[in-house]
């Protein structure tokens, strides 16, 4: 579906450009239009002159491709923080990320003290089958020392064509000698949705990103929870969008639609009025009207905010946590043949009530400040979109984002505990201040119409 959305948006962009040329060409006879056009070409000539001087006179022979790419990126960076140029490799990497599957080993890794550390093996992948464990340290990949590589470089070396081998040397706590493991790459599907039962009466759904697999993963997770917990015992669901940076627009629409029966989900508005697009929900609520709480924080951005904004405006969910990031713009990926692609900001998006959250974020219905460990206090705050240089202005009061912290240990997660208590109707001091305002949401005929 994203391909359809992307193609429609690119088509709209191309069509609009063609229309502008066709409708304005007679006006180019005016003195002001001719002067503006001449000034533009003069500036382009200046660029050519500067480039030629660099080629011929710079102290060392420059890499001309890099010089041109830097100039393109500089031009795009002057527009806003999210428009950029991707060379062929960056474009391929982006496609891998949004597709949600690639040839690899199935290991989630992080960089710690210059070493590549395993966060966890992904179930039913070569890494899991080979016995790779969390906290293993990878010291070599195919005989090459990992220390000194960036995390992305190490990941690139572990990815590759399916059915090819890669040899890892691993240090494991409690083992004196390194372990050599040879794995055969396979198709790895990034699990963008993780789920579990909470106390036998609540379904927990964590969406980590919006890639091509997200809606299908979400539906499967809901089906499993509903098969494991009898309907009369299932009190509701928690949709955790904390620190979810966003992703594909079509997946944000599908995830929103999963909990809505009707009405507008989001609208996107470009430079011209005829570029406005509205996306509406289809009949059918995957959780059959069960109460829903959405968790968000300062790391919840873009597609996450589309989902949160739609569910909040329709009073389908109660939002709990802290203010979101505030990225209210849409980027279209425009392929440039073998030369990579252009990521260009082409529209702003608006929630069903017509709110733009650009540089403002979404305020939760119930604010719950996370319990931040003393060593991280002051380091957990994010400035959000409003803190990015060159961000699109909103015309309204701009606000920074909030804490981006939440613990990996659920027992120490006070925001999650508040969400569970809210769904169960259990007393919780953090909820009392908003108790009169926050009522368990219902999906029924009283759901307001969308505009």
Task: Describe the fold and architecture.
- 31% of the residues lie in helices and 22% in strands.
- With 451 residues, it is of the alpha+beta class.
- Strands 3, 4, 5, 6, 7 and 8 form a six-stranded antiparallel beta sheet that branches. It has a six-stranded mixed beta sheet with strand order 10-11-12-15-16-19, with helices on both faces.
- It is built from eleven helices and 19 strands.
- It has helices at residues 2-24, 31-57, 64-77, 88-99, 126-129, 151-158, 214-228, 249-257, 303-313, 414-424, 429-432; strands at 84-86, 101-104, 107-112, 115-121, 137-141, 144-145, 165-171, 179-184, 186-189, 193-198, 202-207, 236-240, 264-269, 277-280, 292-296, 318-321, 329-335, 341-350, 366-367.
- Residues 1-29 and 435-451 have low confidence and may be disordered.
- The relative contact order is 0.10.
- The chain folds into two domains: 101-189, PDZ domain (Pdz3 Domain); 193-432, 2-enoyl-CoA Hydratase, Chain A, domain 1.
- Helix 8 packs parallel to helix 9 (303-313).
CATH architecture of the largest domain: Alpha-Beta Complex
Helix share of residues? 25-40%
Described by strand count, sense and barrel closure, the largest sheet is: 6 strands, antiparallel
Compute the CA-based radius of gyration.
Answer: 25 Å
Name the assembly state.
single chain
Supply the key terms.
2-enoyl-CoA Hydratase, Chain A, domain 1; disordered N terminus; 31% helix; Pdz3 Domain; 11 helices; disordered C terminus; 19 strands; globular; alpha+beta; 451 residues; 6-stranded antiparallel β-sheet; 22% strand; 6-stranded mixed β-sheet
């Amino acid at each position: 579906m994203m391909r359809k959305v992307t193609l429609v948006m690119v088509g709209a962009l191309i069509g609009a450009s063609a229309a502008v040329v066709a409708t304005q060409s007679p006006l180019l006879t005016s003195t002001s239009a001719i002067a503006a056009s001449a000034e533009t070409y003069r500036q382009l000539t200046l660029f050519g002159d500067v480039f030629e001087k660099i080629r011929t006179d710079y102290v060392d022979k420059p890499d001309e491709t890099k010089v041109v790419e830097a100039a393109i990126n500089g031009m795009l960076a002057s527009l806003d923080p999210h428009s950029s140029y991707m060379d062929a490799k960056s474009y391929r990497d982006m496609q891998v990320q949004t597709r949600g599957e690639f040839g690899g080993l199935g290991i989630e890794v992080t960089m710690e003290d210059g070493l590549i550390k395993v966060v966890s093996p992904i179930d039913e992948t070569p890494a899991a089958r080979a016995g790779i464990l969390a906290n293993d340290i990878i010291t070599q990949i195919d005989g090459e020392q990992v220390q000194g590589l960036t995390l992305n470089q190490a990941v690139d070396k572990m990815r590759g064509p399916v059915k090819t081998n890669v040899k890892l040397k691993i240090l494991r706590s409690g083992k004196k000698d390194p372990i050599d493991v040879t794995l055969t790459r396979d198709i790895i599907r990034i699990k963008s949705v993780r789920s579990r039962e909470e106390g036998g009466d609540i379904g927990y759904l964590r969406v980590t990103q919006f890639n091509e697999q997200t809606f299908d993963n979400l539906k499967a997770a809901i089906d499993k929870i509903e098969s494991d917990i009898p309907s009369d015992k299932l009190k509701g669901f928690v949709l955790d969008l904390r620190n979810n940076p966003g992703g594909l627009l079509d997946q944000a629409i599908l995830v929103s639609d999963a909990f809505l029966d009707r009405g507008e989900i989001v609208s996107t508005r470009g430079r011209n009025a005829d570029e406005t697009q509205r996306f509406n929900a289809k009949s059918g609520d995957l959780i059959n009207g069960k109460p829903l709480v959405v968790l968000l924080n300062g790391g919840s951005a873009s597609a996450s905010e589309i989902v949160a904004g739609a569910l909040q405006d329709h009073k389908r969910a109660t939002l709990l946590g802290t203010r979101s990031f505030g990225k209210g713009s849409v980027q279209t990926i425009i392929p440039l043949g073998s030369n990579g692609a252009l990521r260009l900001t082409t529209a702003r998006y608006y929630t069903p009530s017509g709110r733009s959250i650009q540089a403002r974020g979404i305020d939760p219905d119930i604010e719950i400040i996370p319990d931040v460990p003393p060593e991280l206090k002051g380091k957990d705050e994010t400035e959000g979109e409003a803190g990015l240089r060159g961000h699109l202005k909103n015309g309204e009061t701009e606000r920074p984002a909030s804490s981006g912290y939440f613990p990996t240990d659920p027992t120490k997660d006070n925001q999650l505990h508040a969400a569970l208590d809210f769904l169960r109707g259990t007393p919780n001091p953090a909820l009392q201040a908003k108790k009169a305002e926050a009522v368990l949401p219902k999906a029924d005929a009283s759901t307001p119409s969308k505009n």
